[in-house]
Amino acid sequence: MKTTQEIRQDFLDFFRDRGHTVVPSATLVPASDPTLLFTNSGMVQFKNVFLGSEKPNYVRAVDVQRCLRAGGKHNDLDQVGYTARHHTFFEMLGNWSFGDYFKRDAILWAWELLTGVWGLAPERLLVTVYHTDDEAFGIWRDEVGVPVERIVRIGDNKGAPYASDNFWQMADTGPCGPCTEIFYDHGAHVAGGPPGSPDEDGDRFIEIWNLVFMQFDRQPDGTLLPLPAPCVDTGMGLERLAAVLQHVHSNYEIDLFQHLIKAAAALTATDDLAHGSLRVIADHIRACAFLVADGVLPSNEGRGYVLRRIIRRALRHGWMLGVRGAFFHRMVEPLVAEMGQAYPELVTRRDTIEAALGAEEARFAETLDAGMKVFEEVAARAGDTRTLAGEEVFRLYDTYGFPVDLTADIARERGLGVDMAGFESAMQAQRERARAASQFGGAITLPSELASSLPPTRFEGYDSHVGQARVLAI
Ligand code: ATP
Ligand code: MG
Ligand code: MG
Ligand code: MG
């Protein structure tokens, strides 16, 4: 059976043999795109190539891109621990054509790699195409030989102007085009329906590979002009693919994750290897370690606050498993053992990573235990509304360092919600008190959490199950 490391290498080899230049992963902090919080897909580092302002010396590329979907446009943080297929940090395998080959080669190679090289049973695979993309439909049916009942046409998304699950675009104008996605059927014993069905959001039919065909240039008036040199951008989740190739139904059961989960179990003295908290810790150590490796440190704003929130979520899961001391920074060692070969920066920056995580761990340890007791009291007062009062959520945030999404996450486990509007107004009131106090030059008592680095008042939007509310992220 192939290890995750071997699968990563197979992918690079397959496309290198077909004339692709191997390009290293970019960092999680996008180098040239201040509008983007994190690198969330393979195309980020090639954005300027697609826009035409950068010309690499190759027209075909292959890479394994580390990605983070824990803030900004893509946020899968609240899926972690709840689905078998979502991580905050994951690796995206991609092959690229910059004005070279197009739909036919991209589709035929994807099929050859999956069914030929890796031997996946064709009858387990389903594909989707954009509803008007007869060209892709025809290639799948006539050249690959996929039966029409397993080729699903996917239309536009509910009401969103140009968005659709199977139509990709970089922005409101510019390069865009249809996608075709490949799904694997894990079997009838797993819950979930095929793509395009009402219960598609399950773990039975798992999307493994997205092939994007950039063929249009959308004009400000919405017209689609054909691009002179169409491009291909593909992305396949390494962990999902490994699950398929290792005959398991969850990403968390692949070799890489099992090693991390065992390490987490040892550090937290947990016997039950299937415990959900171990999965979350295994997920979060990757996100946190790579963020630090790529230059992010825990802080109260922007990227640093996303890191802080993920670390605190992991620490809370450790607490749930009964840990009362430091453990999380000790996950760096097994992570380096697992991924250091593919990512040498983990090895060279190991000390920094351990120190940063350890410091944050020590800091949160001062309030975590007391905060959890307060949470229990607050939860007991939720009453029939099944909602935690905004004032109380604010107190947890202000005095105990519980980011609002952490509180919402714990509440969700108990079937409780959070009064976001109430939290926001408590936060606003606090800000006004601080402003008034500083006007009079008086000594104000800032919460210990904020005292060191209160930034200018600032909102960071972030998507989460607690609603579309804008959440203060300082
Ligand atoms: P899904 O619909 O399952 O959330 P997606 O459509 O958002 O996936 P894409 O943006 O198309 O994903 O990314 C390309 C590939 O990256 C996906 O086909 C999948 O294999 C993988 N992938 C996407 N999000 C995640 C994640 N959070 N964790 C692990 N792999 C992911
Ligand atoms: Mg998604
Ligand atoms: Mg999808
Ligand atoms: Mg997709």
Offer a concise description of the structure.
The protein has 474 residues and is of the alpha+beta class. The chain is 41% helix and 18% strand.
Number of helices: 15
Query: Major sheet, described briefly?
Result: 9 strands, mixed
**H and E string:** HEHEEEEHEHEEEEEHHHHHHHEHHEHHEE
Helix content range: 40-55%
What is the assembly state of the chains in this entry? single chain
The pLDDT mean sits at 91
Hetero compounds: adenosine-5'-triphosphate, magnesium ion
Categorize the overall geometry: globular
Query: What structural class do helix, strand and pairing data support?
Result: alpha+beta
Uncertain residue segments: 158-164, 450-474
| Gyration radius, rounded | 23 Å
SS elements, strand count: 15
Cofactor: Zn(2+)
Catalytic activity: tRNA(Ala) + L-alanine + ATP = L-alanyl-tRNA(Ala) + AMP + diphosphate
Protein name: Alanine--tRNA ligase
GO cellular component, one term: cytosol
